[in-house]
Each structure stands twice: as C-alpha cells, then as structure tokens.
Amino acid sequence: MLLPIYIVASGIQMLSKIGSCAMLAIGWSSAAGVIHLNATLTDSAFSVSGKYQIEVLETGDTLRIEPGQKFSFALPPDSLWTLCAKKGDTAGAYEKCFEIRRPGKDSVIEAKLEGTGAFLAQPEVDLATAATVASANVTTEEGPAGDTETESVRLQKVMLRAQRTPKRALGRQTVSAKLIKRMPGLAEADVIRSIQGLPGVVSSSDFSTKIYVRGGGSDQNLILFDNAPVYSPVHFFGLFSTFLVNGIQDVTFYKSGFPAEYGNRLSSVLDVRSRRGGRDSSNSLFKGSSVQISTVATSAHTEGHQGPVRWLWAGRTTYIKQVVDFLRERGAIDLVLDYYFYDLQGNMAYALGPDAEASFSVYQGRDRLNFDPFLVEWGNTVIPINFKWKHSDGWTYRTTLAYSLMSQTFGLTSIFEFYNRIATWQAKQSAEYSGLEGHRLTFGEEASGMQTIFRNSQYVARLTFRDQTDFLLVSLFMQDKWSPGKWEITPGLRLNYASTLEAPQAEPRLSVKYSLPAKQTLDFHAGYYLQYINSILFGDQESINEFYYPAKKVKYRTVEPTASVLLAAGYSKEQIFNQFDFSLEGYYKSLYHLLIFAPNEKPDSILFDTQRDLGDLFDEAEGYSLGYEASLRRPVGTLFGGLSYSHGYSVIRENVFREPYYPKWHQPHSFKADLAVNWKGADGIWASKKKGGYFRSSTQVKYATGLPYTEYSGYAPSHLIDQNDGRMAGGPNPEFEGNLNVMRAGYNEAVVPPYFRWDVKPVDWGREGKWNFSFTILNVTNHKNVFFYTYDRQQNPPERITITQFPFFPFLLSYEYTF
C-alpha cells in the first residue's frame, strides 16, 4: 500500500522562515537539566480562535495550540531558540517568529508572545537573583525571520541579542541574503561568490563563478533552486551572480555529509531558497519593491501580498558592452567585449490552509558572448512547483514537480559548432515523521526523466555528429535522525536505478554527532556517492560551461557513473569568550570513473566507426583528495567576520600507462579572511538618528597557492608540408620559416605564482528597507594574478605572454531604492 506522500523535497528543517520577527523577553533562574519553556500566545495577529502551529526551529518540535492557552516545550541546552507561530490566513511561509539569545546557565522560561515582541510574565521560580528583570518593559523592532541582523531587547539593566542561526552540522553552512549583500562583491551581491569565500572551496579565476569543493570537479556540485536542479549557473567575466539576491531568502551549502534526499552529485549541495514576497502581514501590491543601478548592470524586483497569496518577481540585464566601449574610446582600457545577458527570477506562494502551501517559481537566464569569429551562447530555464503540508500528528509531506533545461552553443563562424543540451523533468516526494521520541524519520522517492544531446557540426567538411540519450533515473531514499542523549546518529540510504544501465546501485551514508560540554561538538561522516550525469574534460583550459554526458552502455564500453567514497570528521566550539565560533574539519575523498575525452588513444576501428557513440571516445580516470580546514568567526557585533585556512591535496590518474598528476583545481594552501565594521546603526559604534539607518564598511582578503599548468620545456621548427600544427583551421603553413612547435613538459607539473587579492567596500550606507548606496574597490594592491600563459610562436625563441585577472578597479558603484 502506497503512503500518501505530499510535498516539496529537501531538508529536514525548513531553513527559510519568512515573516515578522519579534523578540521573546524572558526571565530566568538556575535550573538543572533541560530548559523548560512555559508560554502563552497572546499576539493580536492570532486573535481568531482556532488551532495554530508553534514550531521550535532548532529541534523541529511542533505543537498545535490555541491563543491564550498555556503551552510547554522542553528546549535543548543552548543560548538561542526560535519559536515560530504560523497564521492560517496568509501565505504558508508567513509566520511570526520569536527568537532569543541568552547568556547564562540552564533556565525555566515563562512568557507571553505578543505583537511588538513579548511581555515577560512572572516566572514560576524565585527570581531574587535576577531582580533586574522582575518587571520588564520590552521594546522590539520587527523584521524577516531569515535576517541575520542582530536586534536588541532591553530589560532594564539586561540586554539580550537575538539572531536567526541554524543548527550547526559538519560541512554545512547557511548564508543569508543580507550577509551576502554586506560583503564586497564584483558588480553586485553574489550568491556563488559568497560560497567561494568559504574554507575548502576553490575558485579557478576571477572570471568564473565555478566552485571546486574538497578536490571535486565543478560538475560534482548539486545546485538547487527551490528544489529544482540548475546546470552550470554561470555568467561570463565573473562579474555577475546567476541568482538575484533580492529574490533569495538564504543559501544552505553542504560540502560533506549531505542527507540521503540529495543525490546524483559527489562533492556538495548548494540549496538556494526563494524569499516569499510581502514583508508584513498587511496586504500590499508593491511595498518592498526596489530598483538597483550599478556600474555594469541594472536590476529591479517587485513583491506583494494579497490575502493567501504572496509573490516576488525580479529581473536584471547588463550594459557592460556599452561601458567597455565608452572606456575604450577614451583610452582608459584596451578591451573589446561584446557580451549581453538577462535574468528573470520569481516565485508565487498560495496558502492552502494554516499548515499547507503551494508555490510556483521560475528562473530564466540567457548569455551571448561574441569574440568574432567565436560565438558562445548559453542559458538556463528552471521551473519548480512545490507543495508542503504539515499534519498535526507529526507528519510533514513535501512534493516537487520541476523542469530544468540548460543549452549551450560554441562555435567558430562558418567553420564548426558544438551544441550541448540537458533537460530534466523531475518528480520528488518525501514524508517526514517526528512522532517517535528521539527520532526524525524521512523517506521518499525521486524520478527524473533526462535527455542529453551533444552535437558536433563541421561546416567546412559538411559533417555532423549527434549523440542523444533519453533515460530515466529513479531513486528511493530513507533516513533516521536518532537523538539518544548527547548523541545524534543519522543513518541514511539511497537506492538508484538508471534505465541506461543494467543494475540498481546503493548509496549508504552515516553521520554521527556528539555534544560535549561548553558548546563543543564532535562530528563524523562516511558515505558513498554516485553521479549519473558528468562533465567531459576536453583539455587543460577551463570552459565557460560544463559539457554533460550520461552514464550509459555504448557500443564498445559502458560509461559508468562517477563514484566517490567520503570520510569526514570535525570538531567545533561555539561562543568562545562569548564571541567566537571555531571549527576544524578533515576529510578524505576517493574518486572513480572520471570521464576524460581521449580520441587520440582510440584505435582507428573505433575512431572512424560512424555507428559509435561519443562515449566510446572516453577514457576513465580515478583520483583522491584529502585535507583539513580551520575556521574562526565572530558572527555578530560592531566588528564581525572571520578567517579560515585550508590545506589539501588532489591527485588524478587517467590510466596505468600515465603518471598521476594534479588536476587544474589543485590548490594546497588557501587563506581567506573577511571583516565588517558597523560604524552606525544596529551594533554600531554610533547610534543612527533615523530608524533603520546604517553605515558599514567591509573587506575581503584571499591568499592561495597558484593553480597547476603544463609548462613548455623547449621548441623546434616544424617542417610538415601542407599541414598546420594543430592550432586551428586556416592557421599558418608549417613549411614557412618562423613557424615553431613548443614542446610540453610534464602535465600540470608547474604552478602559476600565488594568488592574492584584497577587496574593500569602504561605503555601505543606507536605511533598512529604504535605500542603499555602496562603493567597492577591487584588487586594492593591483596584484597581477595569472589567468593563463600563452606563447607567440612567431618569435624565435617563442615569447611567453601572461594573461592576468582583474586589475585594480575602483569604479564599482551601486544604488538601490526600495519603495
């Protein structure tokens, strides 16, 4: 008998809580064991009689309560808890959240939850030792529950600070949209760039937003937009994020130990969640909408709320071609750039009741880059539909229906053209049950219909090669988060069947967490991961996008799914000196069945067989990576930020006849630091005269060892009559003097000089929800970071030419106005 599984897929706890945020003022006393909360919901927004749901975000515990009636929770020992009460007459994601962060020992809490914050009731225990809070006047300001900005509650002589902070786990980090906006960016706030700043993540260059996580390839990262997969979400030149930050609630990033519900990737999960429109409980059509103008792009978004419906739509386009042309005509730069893109992004949510919501999201983006005679075009279309229902008996159901398309074309006008397309139709259902004490069970299924097309057109020779695969990938997953005492043990299993392969395959996973005294934790994870759609490695240089090919049986061989075994362990300690969070993580990862495009190593019987598949021209590689990462952060305060150090090794071997080598993303040492200063406003050195006013500055620094490349060891003249030397069609004829062949040394045995970049955002000025002006300086020291080397072979000896990355650039201005 099939269980009725309804709902969106992803996460055990909902990390994106939208709505008004208030403070919970409390009284406390010394108590042993767990923390007991006794509270009453008296907020005017919940004045209508009936059942409402209260959830503790840190534990996922829920209760059905009535306004005015006392309810109780047993809270885990901590200094931060978040309680969210959901209304039934607004969009399902709207709720009022009461959050607290309290220093001190275990407590008994008694409170009323009310509109402007919370009113402190008389505690059930003697408060003689806490007389300063015996009668409190509470003042708070409301804001979105997902914000990380700190707010203050003054209880006479006692100050509490509240912050929405997700429960920490090994290899998992959540970055809010507000934090992304605060840090220095290239042209604008950037979702992917914020992830590149985390330890264990390698970025290949300033011009790319691809990420390489703990030794894995850039195609091994599962990127989700409201539970729908997104393939190669990049814009050219590294100036722009794919996702518009104004439409994002937060981003959860797993770099190891991701739950069993996530599959078909090896290295990481980047889970992007849309923000629900309408910033408060009152109806509005345009309140909170904004327009942003920067040096190289313009964007706008609109949002609103009418009854049970909430919406948010955003769009962006660039005029970087016109800016480059303007600067070139005035002699400021020597660059020709014919580039254009646009993005459209949005969502609409409808409340089906107090505990159910349906939502519809869209992302559409297209890019066009013309380096005459080269032309590159690519883009994504992503459409997820999500449904979520929380049942009162401890069940939560999620369903996702999604369509995702990525297509790209690369060619030389009238000579050749490569075309790649991957389309996915996905249905995913999951159920979560929390009715068993100490257990949180999750199970579900995911079915993906996928189509990949690879086409190579040689117009000069009038030849076209086309490889198309249509296949079905079905997965079942199950997981139990078991919490006996100080332990948290999470076994999981994912079963997969691909219609292009003969046998099903399993992915077992296990995570263990142990809580030590003084906010310390130990974590361990072991898992086996499979990936059924992989990128083809065509050569040394990084391509703008990935070229995807599925695991399948072809004429002469079987293209196996890429596989990985991951072991990771970590230690963390929070609130060191009541200010700093520290983490230390180590990992070992093995990789199998990596795809290498190697037509020159195939016999003529395969190479010239017109019935062969593209997969017949692949070789397989295997490899491993290992390393550790240390991070120290101060998450809030007048000065906040952090620093991290990563040390790791990555090695790949293509076959038994070739020596192992470092992949192009191998970076043994990396140091990253960021720092922000609140000059004025919340947590500022000076108070703002106007409500919501702020003035901030921030900076980012990165120092890392250079990436590997293949050096040239010598040169020799070429005397092959009527042939070019492999450079390109129409190249100079080798029978002429001065045409030289450069001889290669060992593959990726050399490294470019170390990478260093220091960015500063000296001005981040505005009022919350009103306007913002920012000014960013890139590469303050004008450090010449090497992008790649090339050679002028018309010189004797050949002259090496260095192509560098972003220079000193002090012209990034941005202004945003919110209606």
Characterize the structure shown.
With 819 residues, the chain is mainly beta. Among the domains are: 20-162, Immunoglobulins (Immunoglobulin-like, Sandwich); 172-272, Beta Complex (Ferric Hydroxamate Uptake Protein, Chain A, domain 1). It has 4 helices and 51 strands. The chain has a 22-stranded antiparallel barrel. A 6-stranded mixed sheet has the order 4-3-6-7-1-10, with no helix packed on it. A 5-stranded mixed sheet has the order 13-18-19-16-17. Strand 27 and strand 28 (439-458) form a beta hairpin. The longest helix has 10 residues, at 320-329. The two termini are 53 Å apart. Residues 1-33, 88-94, 116-166 and 723-737 have low confidence and may be disordered.
CATH class of the domain at 20-162: Mainly Beta
CATH A-level architecture of the domain at 20-162:
Sandwich
Total helix count? Answer: 4
Weakly predicted, low-confidence segments:
1-33, 88-94, 116-166, 723-737
Structural class: mainly beta
Percent in helix: under 10%
- Overall average pLDDT: 79
Shape: globular
* Topology, number of strands: 51
CATH homologous superfamily name of the domain at 20-162? Answer: Immunoglobulins
Strand content: over 45%
Query: Rg from C-alpha positions?
Result: 28 Å
Give the terminus-to-terminus CA distance: 53 Å
What order do the helices and strands come in, and which of them pair?
Blueprint: E1 20-23, E2 35-41, E3 52-56, E4 62-65, E5 70-75, E6 80-86, E7 95-101, E8 108-114, E9 117-120, E10 143-144, E11 151-155, E12 158-162, E13 172-176, H1 177-182, H2 191-196, E14 201-202, E15 212-213, E16 221-225, E17 228-229, E18 248-254, E19 268-274, E20 290-294, E21 297-306, E22 309-318, H3 320-329, E23 338-353, E24 356-371, E25 374-390, E26 395-412, E27 416-433, E28 439-458, E29 463-482, E30 487-498, E31 505-516, E32 520-531, E33 533-535, E34 548-550, E35 552-553, E36 558-559, E37 562-576, E38 580-597, H4 604-607, E39 618-634, E40 639-653, E41 669-680, E42 693-704, E43 708-709, E44 712-717, E45 740-744, E46 750-751, E47 755-767, E48 771-778, E49 786-792, E50 799-804, E51 809-818
Parallel strand pairs: 1-7, 2-8, 16-19
Antiparallel strand pairs: 1-10, 2-5, 3-4, 3-6, 6-7, 8-9, 11-12, 13-18, 14-15, 16-17, 18-19, 20-21, 20-51, 21-22, 22-23, 23-24, 24-25, 25-26, 26-27, 27-28, 28-29, 29-30, 30-31, 31-32, 32-37, 33-34, 35-36, 37-38, 38-39, 39-40, 40-41, 41-42, 42-47, 43-46, 44-45, 47-48, 48-51, 49-50
